[in-house]
Amino acid sequence: QCFRLASQSDSTLSLDGLRRFIRMLCRELSVDETVFGDLATEYMRFDFSGSGSLEVNEAYKLVKFSLRAHCKACGLLEGASSAVPAKGLRQAGYSLSRLLGEGNQGVAWLAVDTHGHEVCIKMYEKRKMNTSGIEELKDEFETLQLLECAYIARAFEI
């Protein structure tokens, strides 16, 4: 929602759009804007496509990286559990309902837990993972466990 408002109905952010986006996001998350560093530098750094503007995925990565670095600097990631359990979906109490989407990393399924609650399950193919991929997955999980915001998906277990 913040991205859409800041981009002014465009699908990308200019540098001024990024500044608006970060201001709105910081108000929503109750985070200081300094968490995101020098926005001109970060803007260039996360413009992976070289288009001169940030697409939604590039802005997402900028936010994720900055919040993770902030959480790490504040010692907030030390208590997060990142053990990767060796149990299947049934053992964990989930049954798959329907496929939601597919991407380069894996697939997302709508599932139901033992209490009848619907959840989204992200599944990664082990053969596509390498050591750094597993570490990135664990880092993302730790970060998502600590964030509590209506606009960011919660992570319950890995």
What does this structure look like?
The protein is an alpha+beta fold and 158 residues long. The protein has six helices and five strands. A three-stranded antiparallel β-sheet has the order 3-4-5, with no helix packed on it. It has a two-stranded antiparallel ribbon with strand order 1-2. Strand 3 (95-102) and strand 4 (106-112) form a beta hairpin. The longest helix has 18 residues, at 56-73.
Describe what is shown at a glance:
The protein is α+β, with helices and mostly antiparallel strands and 158 residues long.
Structural class: alpha+beta
| Distance between the amino and carboxyl termini | 27 Å
- Count of alpha and pi helical runs: 6
Total E-strand runs: 5
- Average pLDDT metric: 82
Query: Order of strands across the biggest sheet?
Result: 3-4-5
Order of helices and strands: HEHHEHHEEEH
Unreliable sequence segments: none
